[in-house]
Every structure is written in structure tokens, then in C-alpha cells.
Amino acid sequence: MLGLMQDWPLLCHRIIEHAATVHGTQEVVTRSVEGPIHRTNYAEIRDRAVKVSQRLDRDGIKLGDRVATIAWNTWRHLEAWYGIMGIGAICHTVNPRLFPDQIAWIINHAEDRVVMVDITFVPMLEKIADKLPSVERYIVFTEKAHMPETTLKNAVAYEDWIAQADGNFKWKTFDENTAAAMCYTSGTTGDPKGVLYSHRSNVLHALMANTGDSLGANAGDTMLPVVPLFHANSWGIAFSAPSMGTKLVLPGAKLDGASVFELLDTEKVTHTAGVPTVWLMLLNHIAANRLKLPHLRFVVCGGSAMPRSMIKAFVDMGVTVRHAWGMTEMSPIGTLAALKPPFAELQGEARLDILQTQGYPPFGVQMKITDDAGKDLPWDGKTFGRLKVAGPAVSKAYFRVDTEILDKDGYFDTGDVATIDQYGYMRITDRSKDVIKSGGEWISSIDLENLAVGHPAVAEAAVIGIHHPKWDERPLLIVQLKPGQTATREDILKFMDGKIAKWWMPDDVVFVEGIPHTATGKILKTALRDTFKAYRFPNAAA
Ligand code: AMP
User: Fold this and answer.
1) Residue 383 C-alpha from the chain's centroid
2) 332 close to ligand 1 (CB < 6 Angstrom)
3) What's the pTM?
4) What band does 189 get if pLDDT is binned at 50, 70 and 90?
């Protein structure tokens, strides 16, 4: 017997429709790519998104067609998103930090018909445009006055383009399982893989994000997603904030400490979200200029492990820190480190211990750890295993790739190694390919990195496994010092000594000018392994 409730498909554009109807005057503020601060609201965003739908429809874009965006977080990008999805086309967010050849590969693989692009990325696209046969036209996110001279095919300024629509158009309705958006994983090995979100998965993910133990915002709050729209839906905030009526502040192209600080301050931002590198820049700016952010209450940090020293810096500012783990394939939220009983009352170091975990999953994410043979491992907080996940916003396949990616119980292998304790708190030990295998035991490169960045002279640290004749692999610590600071190998090892098991101590420390990163801000270990492939430990007898 079926229930007698209404058929009300979970469609993404219903979110912006709700925001416009119930929270229409709530502001969306942007530092525009052209420079000035721009202010609009949810009602206007909805009206202009409808025009995007109407205009794409007139250009012959149909259900299932891919429309790419290569853009910063701005109001135009947001309204284009909803406009693309509102006719059942697929909003393909391309990460502009990838190499141009990777961008060309991704656009070709997705067969994007239209590309919407910020002025910043027009020169890069011009260089690869002759390799993009599927693209029929380029829409540049700007108005006539700032439209660059360009060789891009059928290029038009976005404002001129939507001015040709009168807004007399209705969103389309279709099955909630229809694809809504796609995002390619950065793929440090092999080709990038296309993750294809559905309307249903995006809406359910927004609801998962909308709790106090998740992103923690309400209609009375102001959220600044530093995390880009092209990084897994800005962690879902592009859906979650309008669904709650939260004011949005969008940082455009400027993500340095001073620019982010200025927006947090002037817009009285209460909630913000970004990767550790962004928070490092912000905290350095705050410390160097003795600044304060009296309105900031909540910082979400994910994408890479959040160092303990960073958690402490925010806690000392009176800010709630929400360390989160997830991945593009999970839309992306997997777990969040909220303090629940019996930990809520903890203080000092014990409190930091819990805040530093990757946290527990919200309803809608199931997880387990297994050994290599797929056997379930206990949730005892000690046993490491492969972390696997399931849920309505978790991928079951990649776009146009036939390989099976789920195990026999329907779980997706995240490629991470983790422990889970009896309360459900998960701790990432490593990516499975980064964990250091020393004498049959595992050493967590993440734990060593977190510890090393706690040294006052260290800006960033990376640990890789180097072949060792006796132990198979041993850890090499690679350090980038803060500008103007000095420290020796011995200083760093002394700082770490006693804080970890003796056999976890790095066998050597080397100093580099800069640590390479992926397009989503993670340490690029493949490049480091390449740089140090001829390295041998001084103490390792052959
Ligand atoms: P992406 O799909 O680019 O977001 O990358 C997902 C991967 O980033 C995960 O599988 C983890 O390896 C890593 N990651 C994300 N958040 C965290 C975190 N809080 N701590 C450690 N690793 C993380």
C-alpha cells in the first residue's frame, strides 16, 4: 500500500523559489569580480534565475544538456546555477585551478554545450577553445562595460544575454532523480571522474546540512562560503543557505586573508566555511594586525585535516569550530565534529581532542570500516580500516565510466583509512595510498603533519613514506618555514619528540621553499614523491 501524501518532487529550483517567497528580502552580497561590492536578495536572484532558464530554453538547451560554469562565488554564478537546473539542464561546475589541458579534457568528456565564464578566465579559455568542439557559445559573467574583446565563439555579456528574456517563464517539472549538477574529482592519478548529482540528492543533502550539529546556520545568520561553488557545491551551502533563508556573502575572486577578513567584518558574518589554507591566511592576518571579529561565531573547516593549533586559535577567539570531512562523491558532507554527550562539557585539551576528530555522520550518511578483504572492523577508536559510506547523496557510479564502485552491500570505498569510536566519531588516519607502512604497522602521515605545523616556525608540513631496507617505509618530513623564520632539523624533531610513539618519529626532515597543492588545496603528495624519489635516509644501511 502506498502512502497518501502528495507527489512533490525534490527539485533544486524549489529551494530558490522558497527563498524568494519566504525570505525574499534577505540579502546576497558579493565582492564582484569587477571590484565593487554588489547587493541583491533572494527574490531578485530567483527572478533572474528564471530569466536564465528562459534564455537557455530559447537557445535550445534541453533536459540533460550540460552547461559549464567556470567562475568564482558571485550572485551571477548562483542565479545561473538555479537557472540551468530549472529547465533540467545539468550545471557542470569546472574548477578553474586545474591545468588548461585538464579543463579541456573535462569539458570534452562532459560534452558541455554552453560555457559560462568569469572575465578572469577568458584568456585561459581562449587558449583551449579550438579543442572544445561541443561548446556552441560562451557567456561571460559581466555587463557590456566590462566585456573583454574575445575570440571565444558567440561570446556575449551575461547581462546583455539575460536582458533578452522577459521572465515570463515557468520552471520545468520532472522526476526528482533527474541529474542536476556535475563536478569532476581532481584526480591526482588517472583521468578526472565525473560525479553526477541529482535534484533529489542535492535537496536531501541541503536538509542534512541544515542542523545545528551540521553547518549550524539559521535564517537569522550570515554565511560566507569561502569554499568555491566549484568545490562540491560549496559544500552544499549554495542549496543549504537559501533553503533556510540565511544571508549569503560571496567573496568573488579575492580569497586572501585581508580580503576575507574585510568581508567577515563589514558584513557582520556569523558563519563561514573553507579549507585550512584559507584559515591559515586569515589567522595570520588577524594576528599580524591584532584584529578582532566580534560577530563571527562558527567556522566550518574541511577538505584537509584541520591542525590542532588552528582549532585552538579559533576556540581562543570564542568561535565554534566545526571540523568536517567529506568528498565530492558525497555531495560532499560525510561527518562533522559537533560535541555531543558525553563530550559537550569537556574543557581544555580534552575538548580539542574531540574537535580535532573528523566527527560523526548526520542522518543520511552510513559508514563502516573494513579490512582489505571487506570484513567489518570494530568501532573501538583504535582499529584502522578502509572507510566506506552509503546514503542518498553518495555516488553509485561515475559519469560514463562502467567500473563498479560499490561493494556487495552498496557501500562506496572513500579511499581513506580511518578509525571510528563507540560514539561514532571518525578519525581519518590517511588516504590509503599515503599511509606509511613501517614494519607491517601503519603510520599516519596526517598526524605527523598536524603535529609539525604546531611548531611556531613551520608554515606547512607534508609527510611521505620513503623506502627503507629494513622497515619497508619510513616517514620523511618535508617542511616549509614561515617567511623570516628559522628552525633546524633537530629543533623540529625535538618539538615532536614525546608527543607521538617513538617509532612514528620521522627519520629525517628536509626544508623546501614551497609545498605543492592540488586544485582543491590539498597537499600534492604525488609531486612530492616524484621530487624525493632518489632520496635515501642517511641512517638507512643498504
Ligand atoms: P574532494 O573530493 O576533493 O573534496 O576530496 C575528498 C578527500 O579529501 C577525502 O577523501 C579526504 O581524503 C580528504 N579530506 C576531506 N576532508 C578532510 C578532513 N577533514 N580531514 C582529512 N582529510 C580530509
Assistant:
1) 27
2) yes
3) 0.91
4) low
